[in-house]
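Sequence and structure are no longer studied apart. As an example, we show below a sequence and the tokens encoding its fold:
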Amino acid sequence: MSSADPFRDPPETIYGVRKRTALRIVLAVCTVAFVAIWFRAPLGDIWVLLWPPTEISERWFTLVMVVLLSFLVPVAIVLRLTDLLYDRYLASEES
């Protein structure tokens, strides 16, 4: 069948979520947990500065954004590797 075939079988899902998306979600959550555990000492030191916010200012917001965005790079790398491995090993099983 060609990929433009409107009558092809729908992709397999897990609880209504496509397998690739479910794998991405699971690995993103695991990566965030791993990074949080790995950097727990520096995050603990910064947590004292972040919570409770005595004054929400530009400096406080900038520090919050730096902490949140520091998780972005590892998650992006893991998701890219997940897509590459999924295309190489698991996508061929579906077609």
Q: What stands out?
A: Residues 13-94 form one domain. The beta strands are 13-14, 17-18. The CA atoms of residues 24 and 80 lie 9 Å apart. DSSP finds four helices and two strands in the chain.
